[in-house]
């Protein structure tokens, strides 16, 4: 039986080839079979029809390969259907937000609450503010996904709303920087779907505070078996376990390859750890309150959540917690 270190090396050597096979959407290292047994292997995800011939090998250099169905996408919760638009738009309250305590103005802003671009689109959306972090000048900026707080063609200075709303009615921050795709961190490629924005319009933000969770206490690298928690707009506070790492994934939403991602499953079998609208949530190591990732998507068929490691994100934006 191969060690975890050996398995990670074998996956890295074969990832590009496997990811290039028909229907394959992701490949990583994690728990296969019965999760309780913690047997480690290579996991391959595919969108193959049932009649498609198997092209992924059953083992790679002696490491067992488990095939799972589906793909990972980066959904945001739809804000308003196109037919609902009418004047005045600022008076409309989406039904899916009524009574949600996270969808109100938080001053100062904190993680775990609603956010979206402060601009009008006929196809509008909302997600979660992950948390406030410290930029290179020591000032607070808010962190979420690129696909949550950026418009379709973002430029620096674009507005961000908190709570998520329309027509500049809750302008809270100004877009600073963003990225969707791989960045280089410590000599390796890591995928990130992230953006930061600076509080504006008289708004402020509290670094490290997240709705419903203890204040964060630094950062930590994800590890197999690590128990983690998130606080998101749609599913509130949920607890899960890291069940796969080093996942190279083709985002079904953007078509971009994101390298070395993290997969999380809910600790309650059969439940979702996250759903649409939770995109942008910070992933917290439960025991230490350390930030370990930023949630960006999931696989509906397997009910798994995907997130990016936090360290490459902070390095790319020259930020700290």
TrEMBL record:
Residues 207-301 form the Nal1 C-terminal domain. It comes from the Bacteria. InterPro entries: Nal1_C (IPR057904), Peptidase_S1_PA (IPR009003), Peptidase_S1_PA_chymotrypsin (IPR043504). This is Nal1 C-terminal domain-containing protein.
